[in-house]
Amino acid sequence: MSQREKRKYQVDRFWLDQEEYSTKWYIYWYDERKRKTRRKTTHKTDYECAKEVIDEHYYASRSQTKAQSNEADIRKILSNYWLEHGRSLVAAPVINTTIISFTKFIDLEEDAGRISGLTMLSDITPRFIKRFITWRLSHSINVIKDDAGDISKIQVLKREVSPNSVQTYIKYIRAAINWAYKNGDILFSPHIPGISKYELNGPRTAFLTINMMADALNYAHQKKMDHLFKFLIGCIGTIARPETVLDIHVGLQMDWIQDFLDLNPPGRRLTSKRRPIVAVPDLLKEWLSEESGYFVQRQGKQIKSIKKAWRTMREELLWPKNIVSKTIRHSMARTLRTNSEFKKKYNIFIDPWELSGHMGHQASGSLEITEGYAQYIPNGESTVIQGLNAYFLELEENVDFDLHPSCTQET
Q1: CA distances from 158 to 141, 142, 314, 325 (A)
Q2: Which phi and psi (to 5°) does residue 218 adopt?
Q3: What is the pLDDT of residues 15-37, one digit of tens each?
Q4: How much is the pTM?
Q5: pLDDT per residue as tens digits for the range 317-365
Q6: What is the pLDDT at residue 129?
C-alpha cells in the first residue's frame, strides 16, 4: 500500500495512521532534526475523535512555533532594517529618530524591571507599544554627536510631541519588523497598534493672515535673521513644504532659461509627497538670483532646521502654538483659493487644477486618469503665479521696508 493511501487524514506535516496490532489511532510526523518519522498516540479508537485530536495538536504546534520565532532581539531587528534599507530612504532622518527613541524606551523598560533580560520581539506586545506611545507623546529626543559625527549622548526632554509625529514613528517600527519578516528572520509579524484616528490631529485650522505674514517678515528683518527671512520668502513664493524650501540649492535646481525651479534636488528619490517643478513669481526670482548655493543658509552652510528660530519668533509675536512653519503652505493655498476680497482687489482668478499641480498634489478618483494624459506643466503666466505676484504686492503694503533684495540686504 502506498504512503499516500496510508495517510487517511493529514493536517500540514501531521497525519493519522494505525499500527498493525492496535485499534488506536496515532499522530505521525517526520522529524527533520532527528531525520526519522515519529509518532504520538491519540488514545482514541474512534476515527472522528482522532481527527479532532490531530487538529488540536496541529494548532498547538503552530502556536509554539510562532512563540519560538518571536525569540529575536528587537535591537538587532531595528539595526538590520536601518543598515540594509532604512538609511538609504529619503525618510532616513525620521527613521533614525524612530530607532533611537524606541531603543531608548526599551532601555527604560529594562531598567525599570518591566522586561526580564534583553527585550525580544515576543516582548513587543500591544500593551508595550501603548506604553511607548504614551511616553513618546510627552517626551522628545535630543541626540548629541561628537566631532566625528558619532552619537555621544541621548537626552530625553519633557516636551509634548504631536500625535501625528508619534504615529509616523509607529509606522517605521512596523516597517522594521515587516522587513525582518520578509527576509526570513522571523516567522510572523506581530500586531503593532497605532494611535486611533480620533486622537490624531484633524485638518489643520491654524491660519496666517497677510498681516501676520507681514509681521513675520518684519520680525526676521528687524532681528537681522537672514536665514529666517529667506525661508519665509521661499515658503510664500513656492507654497512648498518647509523641508523642501530648506533643501533648495539655487545652482542645482533653478533653470534660468525657463525660470523654473525643480523642488526635487538632484539625486533625491521621489516619494508620495511629490516635489514638482514650478514656475517662480517675480520677487522670489529676484531673491534666487542673489544666491548660487543653498537658498536658506548661514555662512555658506545649509540650514537644516528652522524649528528653533520659528518657536522663538512665534513666542515673541504671541502666536498660538498650533501655528507651525507648515502653516505657511496651508495659509497660502487657502488665501489663493478662498480669499475673494484679495482676488477681487487684484482682479485675479486662481484655477484649482493649477494650484493642485503647483503644490504637487496627485489627483485621485476620476481626475487620476485625466492627469495621466494632461500632466501638470509649470507656466509663468499661470493663475497661481499671478496670485503669488499679487500676494507679494499685498505684503509690500503691510511691511515696514522694501521686500526687494537690493533694498533689503546690507551692502
Answers
A1: 9, 11, 20, 22
A2: -60, -45
A3: 898 888 888 999 988 877 667 88
A4: 0.63
A5: 999 988 999 999 999 999 998 899 999 999 999 888 888 888 887 655 4
A6: 95
What is the dotted CATH code of the domain comprising 210-408?
A: 1.10.443
CA distance 63 to 188: 11
Share of the chain above pLDDT 90, in %: 49
**Contact call for residues 309 and 262 (beta carbons, < 8 A):** no
Which amino acid does the sequence have at 335?
T
Angle between helices 163-182 and 126-137 (to 10 degrees): 140
Q: Which of 337, 373, 376 is nearest to 358 (CA)?
A: 376
Q: Report H helices in 70-207.
A: 74-84, 92-111, 126-137, 163-182
All cell numbers assigned to 220: 526676521
Enumerate the domain spans of the chain: 3-69, 74-182, 210-408
State whether the Cα torsion 184-189-194-197 is positive or negative: positive
Give the three cell numbers for residue 151: 552619537
Cβ atoms of 238 and 284 closer than 8 Å: yes
385, 350 in Cβ contact below 8 A?
Answer: no
